[in-house]
Amino acid sequence: MIEIGIDSFAARSSGDDPAVISNEDAIAQLLQRIVHADEAGLDVFGIGEHHRKEFLDSAPAVILAAAAALTKRIRLTSAVTVLSAADPVRVFQNFATLDLISRGRAEMVVGRGSFTESFPLFGLDIENYDALFSEKLDLLLQIRGHEIINWSGKFRPALKNQAIYPRPMQDPIPIWIGVGGTPESFVRAGRLGLPLMVAIIGGETHRFRPLVDLYREAGKRAGHAPEKLKVGLHSLGYVAGTTAEAMDEFYPGYAKTFTKIGKERGWPPVTRAQFDAQAGPTGALLVGSPEEVAQKILHHSKALGGVNRVTFQMDQAALPQAKILNAITLLGKQVKSLCNCNLIYS
Questions:
Q1: CA dist list (Å): 124 to 21, 98, 118, 120, 127
Q2: How far apart are CA 149 and CA 143, in angstroms?
Q3: What phi and psi values does residue 56 have, to the nearest 5 degrees?
Q4: What pLDDT was estimated at residue 340?
Q5: Cα-based distances in Å from 283 to 31, 40, 211, 313
Q6: What is the set of domains in the chain, with CATH numbers?
Q7: What whole-number distance in Å separates Cα of residue 181 and Cα of residue 209?
Q8: For residues 325 and 31, what is the distance between their CA atoms, to the nearest angstrom?
């Protein structure tokens, strides 16, 4: 079975008004979307972590805790926690507390992040990008596995017979590794036997198969059972009544957002032709009718050798709240069932 969910960066913009809505209204809308996803039967909702003006997700565990008090069954996760710039002790305490509030529904996806503003913000050297993550992941896993910690490293003071509280309801609380396209990251996740969340927001999904194979091979060599080596796929996507409707509604906000990001990174402006190609059968975007999106999820799953979870990121397209809520309904009521029915009978 493939779990279907949503990831959000708590974007401040909204299609309800040409201007940016207030922060408090944006957070209220986000919580409404999480509650609606729970009611629609989606499996998971993730909140990212950024430290930029256009996003309100600098403290994802706080948002998720608010959502935990309003929901009943949906799993709540980070997407991703920028572990390189965080204290693993506080990360564990935050998500253990979230796990208690949600009665065992908390998870975290940890990674190095695709933006770099957190490094100077927290007084860290970007040159230590990977070393910071590797050391802090080691400490986080030590804390998850042991109530009393004896640990030393390069970037944080040592811990001697230190008890870490609270402990989560889940034992162990799930920790996924969020990755982009670095082979070493896939191998590390496999070696540690941790589930993998692959962010594919451009290009053709099947090109990531060799990296996913590296993950599975590393996990097998380390002695981890195949069922432990879960693979998740994070993609930009949107669902509407028809594919034409979905494409026309999603494109304007998508183009605006990624053209803006492109200026920072030296990319050319987004064109409709590029968007149409990315939303095609082999492209990364999951945009279309419920039937077409379900088929594309199954195509991507086959291309990657099987996936356990797919999460959609929709809010960066600055769509009106009503359209996002409708898309959530279609994901929960149609796409999820179409995917898993077709998976069972294929």
A1: 33, 27, 8, 6, 9
A2: 7
A3: -115, 25
A4: 85
A5: 30, 27, 17, 15
A6: 3-345 (3.20.20.30)
A7: 11
A8: 11
Q: Is 242 left (phi over 0), alpha (psi -120 to 50) or beta?
A: beta
Burial of 23 (0-12, 13-18, 19+ CB in 10 A): exposed
Q: Which two tokens stand for residue 12?
A: 């401040």
Tokens read off for 256: 């605006």
- Can you read off the two tokens belonging to residue 284? 């990364």
pTM summary value: 0.95
C-alpha to C-alpha distance for 138 and 133, rounded to whole angstroms: 8
Angle at 44 between CA 42 and CA 50, to 5 degrees: 130
Residue 300 has pLDDT above 90, yes or no: yes
Write down the mean pLDDT value for the chain: 94
| pLDDT per residue as tens digits for the range 26-35 | 999 999 999 9
Task: Specify the pairing of strand 106-111 against strand 81-82.
Answer: parallel
Cα–Cα distance for residue pair 219/221, rounded to 1 Å? 5
The pLDDT of 210-215, averaged and rounded, is 98
Q: Which range among 1-15, 55-69, 166-180 shows the weakest confidence by mean pLDDT?
A: 1-15
Cβ-in-10-Å burial (0-12, 13-18, 19+) of 339 comes to: buried
User: Would you state the pLDDT for residue 237?
Assistant: 97
d(CA 281, CA 235): 14
Amino acid letter, residue 218: A
The Cα–Cα gap between 67 and 49 comes to: 16
Longest Cα separation, the chain: 60
| H-helix or E-strand spanning residue 286 | strand 286-288
